Amino acid sequence: LDLCRKARTEIVRWIGGDGEEVEGILYYPHDYLAGKRYPLVVQIHGGPAAADYDSWDDSWAYPTNLICQRGAFVLKPNYHGSTGYGRKFLDSIAWGRYCEPELDDIEKGVDSLIRRGLVDPKRLGLQGWSNGAILTNALIAKTTRYRVAVSGAGTVEYISDWASCEFGDAFDRFYFGKTPLEDLSLYARKSPFTRLNAVTTPTLILFGTEDRVVHPQQGWALYRGLQQLGKAPVRFVQYPGEKHSLKKLSSQKRNIVESLAWMDRYLFDARASDDLSLKKDSPLAWALGRAEAKRSSRGYGIEIGGVLIPETVDFQGITVGRFEVTRAQYAALSGVPCTDRPDHPVGAISFEKAKEYCKWLSKRTGRRYRLPTIHEAEKLYEGTKEGENTLDAWAGYAPNPEDATSLRAKLGRLGEGALLKEVGQGRGQGSLSLVYDLGGNVAEWVDENGKGKLMGGSADTSTDAKRSESEAGSAYQGFRVVLD
User: Given strand 482-483, what is the order of strands in its sheet?
Assistant: First the structure.
């Protein structure tokens, strides 16, 4: 979302249910051009005793500007039963009229925008949470003109809802006028579940697993019904431990991502390429990225003319080694095969030895390899502290300089380079081809105007920004190549 922009708004009015005027807020597409018809998403507020106002109100349930940014209008109707329009308007959906004038309000509001030439009648969508989802469910069971529906925590079958909702009896006595014990047919008639056979709208269902305002069983009923009928694509997402209103930031973010991906697919005709089940910044994602790395029988890398050399990928504007140069790759310089930990980074490397390897590799391949410059390295190693093989990871905390010195003194008991791991075990950096170990394992030599400098984290140094500039121990000094 471009935080410097927000959708232009207009207060709109039309004649809705019961022949009465209804008001709403219309949000314009960010790059609106007069004379062009745009998609429309109707965002239906919950309550029903609530209202939308002409103010910034984007949320995890209603990401209005993110939809407008995609090139669509958003209409927020204050349907019959909303607050702010008097007691008569509020009570107009009570005593058995629930889900009646509200549907006319929304439908006629959409029609008014179509008549104005603003909205493409073939590209309509619905989104609602709680009572907004209840009306969404009712609308997709009433008409097939909506191309997409996002239904969060909404009832679809009122008989069981009366029993499972924490305030079901009081709510239903007011809005239905009776309980299902008194008029079962009324509850069946009001329930969209009895009309799911008519639904063709692709529907995304969202629920917290601990919701007791609208029990998640309602979501299962809607999902199972649509899934069994097979007339409408359907997806059901549940948020573990969440109640009626999502509280965890991870759940809120996922809700926005899921909702927009569903609209992208069915309203904006854009097939989402991201797998929402896989968190990009997760150990599993790093492992899957590592599985894409080139590998031969001798270890990580590419074999050219019988010689194992580093694989390079594009990252931060340069072509750089996916991993630090490994023991097996470096062994090719001497011609003696490496059989001991071939995929570990080579250590005990001086600046001169690193340059010598790059010179040899360039001559052997006919391509120019070198060490990163100081300017390139500053970009490479920026923000690479978390999830790396550093002294912090081994110590289990971020040691201060005094503690780090004490810990390093103990490393000799473990043997030379004992803390080094096979390349690629840490956090992967980048979005397409991942680069590994930029912040740990061995510190890496870079070229600072012809002089060597060690950068990046190492397994024997702390990430504490206040630590002294003590170098990694000799066994933890290695390098990574750049291909011009």
Answer: 312-315, 318-321, 482-483, 369-370
Cα–Cα distance for residue pair 72/144, rounded to 1 Å: 20
This prediction has a pTM of 0.62
Task: Return d(Cα 451, Cα 11) in angstroms, integer.
Answer: 66
Residue closest to 236 by CA, chosen among 265, 258, 212: 258
Q: Are 404 and 462 in contact (CB under 8 A)?
A: yes
Tokens representing 404 are: 């780090």
The full set of domains in the chain, from first to last, is 9-266 (3.40.50.1820), 284-483 (no CATH)
Residue 442: name the closest of 412, 479, 397, 401 by CA: 479
Helices (H) and strands (E) in the chain, counts: 15, 21
Dihedrals φ, ψ of 63, to 5°?
-80, 70
The answer to whether residues 125 and 140 touch, using CB atoms and an 8 Å cutoff, is: no
Provide CB contacts within 8 A for 87, sequence distance 6+.
Answer: none
CA atoms within 13 A on the CB side of 436: 30
**Mapped to the 3 state alphabet, what secondary structure does 410-459 carry?**
HHHHHCCCCCCCCCCCCCEECCCCCEECCCCCCEEEEEECCEEEEECCCC
- 347 contact partners, CB below 8 Å, separation of at least 6: 416, 417, 420, 442, 474, 475, 476, 477, 478
354-370 tens-digit pLDDT: 999 999 999 999 999 99
The mean-pLDDT minimum among 308-312, 384-388, 452-456 falls in: 384-388
Residue 294, classified by CB atoms within 10 Å of its CB into exposed (0-12), middle (13-18) or buried (19+), is middle
Take residue 457 and report the two structure tokens written for it.
């984290």
How sure is the predictor about 271, in pLDDT bands with cuts at 50, 70 and 90? low
**CA-to-CA dists, residue 302 to 218, 293, 329, angstroms:** 55, 10, 9
**Contact residues for 170 (Cβ-Cβ < 8 A; gap 6+):** none
**Closest CA relative to residue 24, chosen from 84, 64, 75, 85:** 75
CB atoms within 10 A of CB 180: 19
Residue with tokens 């069981």: 160
Residue pair 148/61 in contact by the 8 Å Cβ criterion: no
- The set of residues, in sequence order, having a beta carbon less than 8 Å from that of 181 and lying 6+ positions away, is none
The mean pLDDT value of the chain amounts to: 91
Structure tokens that stand for 112 in this block: 């008014």
Cα angle value 221/149/133 (rounded, 5°): 60
Nearest in space to 182 (alpha carbons), one of 173, 193, 190, 191: 173
